[in-house]
Each structure stands twice: as C-alpha cells, then as structure tokens.
Write a structure and sequence with these properties.
This is ER lumen protein retaining receptor. By secondary structure, the chain is an all-alpha fold. It has a domain at 47-185 and 196-250. The chain is built from eleven helices and two strands. A two-stranded antiparallel ribbon has the order 1-2. Strand 1 (265-267) and strand 2 form a beta hairpin.
Length: 280
C-alpha cells in the first residue's frame, strides 16, 4: 500500500526533474498563486498570517534549541545568520514598541530572546564545534548595503525620520539574513536534519509573511501601499518579502522532495547535500 502511494509521487518527481528551468519557475509561480488563493479563502483575518509566520519561526528556533541542548554541537549552523536575525529583530522590536505595541511586539520579544540564547550558546558553550571557516559571509557586506538603502528609501509616514529609517533597515536586513546560513550549507556539503528543519521553518515563515503582505494589499485595493508612504518604499517592501521567500524556495522544494521520497541523502543542484532521516 505504501509503495503504491509512492509511485505517483515518484513519477511526478521524475517528471519535474526533467523539466527545463523556465517550466520549473512557471510551476513554482502557479503553485504560489494557488496557495495564496487557498489561504485567502480559508483564513478570514489575514493579520493571523503574520502571527502564524512568527509562530513557525519560533518553531524553527525551538528546533535549534533542541539541537544545541541535546546534541551539544552547533556544527552546520551559521552564527552570522543568527546575529543578523538578532539585529533585525531588535530593530523591528524597537519599531513595534514605538509605533504599535501589540501582539507582534511580544512575539518579536520572544523570538529575539531565544535567538540571543542561541547566539550565546554558539559563541561560548559550543564554540569548539562552530565551523568558523565555513561561515565566511561577512556580516558587514550584508548590513552596510541594507543600512545605505534604508537611508535612501524608507517610509514617509508621520513617525520620526530615525524610526522610518530603522523600520526600512529591519525590512531589508530580514530579507537577506538567511544568506550566511545557506552559504554554510554550500560550504559543508552536508545539511543535518535539525538544521534542515530549521531552514525549512524559515522558508515557511517567509512565505506566510509574504502572503500576509500581498493579501493585505489585495484586500485594501492598494490602499495599504498608500498608507505605507509614497515613492519606492511600498514597492520595496513587497519586493523584500518576495526576495526572502524565493531565496529559500529552492531549498524548501528539495527538502519536501527528500521527505516525501524518503531519501536519506539528496544532492541539490547548488552542491548542497540534504541528509534527512526518513523512514523507508
């Protein structure tokens, strides 16, 4: 019975693998649109999507905490990605506190607290297992462009200019904060299960956050963009959400393929090997 169920899945996977890149991109876009339609029909209050994104991110962090606490190793994890995450969460927490102060503020505080704990464990308690040479993306190369862009393009709301710039900075930084982690996976050639689960959770959280913004724009018939300000800022907000979703989309695709197919090791086109503990 189990083998019979897997045959259509394997046939579909083989068919997808044979398709040219343009077809794969087209199918990915169609799938994303279909998912947005389903979400819009099922979820009535689209603000809940942002809360769901934060919850999924928290689950991913919980997986990391479990890994660090039980396996006593941080091998395969990017300290720089965690530091970038802490930076944008700190910036977003500040903006949320001075601009809104709602449930999002509490969620950001909880996520920031756990992220800081992960950083502490990696820097001190488990530093001997940290792969310094593999985590070779410079934080400055990520932070400085985001900071410069936030000085040029930021919201034009009624808030103080400093708060506007910090808001823009955290949006831009969040969209690229996972790049060092992806680089570590490329350098190590092995992605162990807990790290894979964490990165997949990030991908799901990014998609939910992106869906939240897109559906909010649709529901308000574009008025949300006007509320965010004028100029390039509204477009860059949506672009940042889309960019961070597509950065992780490729990994999430192969992650799901590995889990569904029950493969122990999967080599990705980027050179990353996903090592997954699946039951065959």
């Amino acid at each position: 019975m189990k083998g019979t169920m897997r045959r259509p899945i394997q046939a579909l996977r083989s068919w997808l693998r044979r398709q040219p890149p343009r077809v794969k991109v087209f199918l990915a876009v169609v799938s994303a649109i279909a998912a947005l339609v389903v979400i819009r029909m099922v979820v009535y209050d689209h603000d809940n999507l942002f809360i769901a994104a934060e919850a999924v991110h928290a689950v991913g962090i919980s997986v990391l905490i479990y890994k660090l606490a039980t396996e006593k190793t941080c091998a395969g994890l990017s300290l720089k990605s965690q530091e970038l995450t802490a930076i944008f969460l700190g910036a977003r927490l500040y903006c949320s506190y001075v601009m809104e102060y709602d449930v999002h503020t509490l969620l950001d505080l909880a996520t920031l607290t756990t992220t800081v704990w992960v950083i502490y464990m990696m820097r001190f308690n488990l530093n001997s297992s940290y792969m310094h040479e593999k985590d070779n993306v410079s934080v400055l190369y990520v932070v400085i462009p985001c900071a410069l862009l936030s000085l040029v393009v930021h919201p034009t709301t009624q808030h103080y200019i400093v708060n506007q710039i910090i808001w823009a900075f955290c949006v831009y930084l969040e969209s690229v904060s996972v790049l060092p982690q992806l680089r570590v996976m490329q350098n190590t050639k092995i992605v162990e299960p807990f790290t894979a689960h964490y990165v997949f959770a990030l991908g799901v959280a990014r998609f939910l956050s992106c869906a939240h913004w897109i559906l909010q724009v649709i529901d308000t018939r574009g008025r949300l963009l006007t509320a965010l300000g004028y100029g390039m800022w509204p477009s860059l907000v949506l672009l940042s959400e889309i960019v961070q979703t597509f950065i992780l989309a490729d990994f999430c695709y192969y992650y799901v393929q590995s889990v569904v197919g029950g493969r122990l090791v999967l080599r990705l086109p980027s050179g990353v090997i996903l090592q997954e503990e699946c039951n065959t």
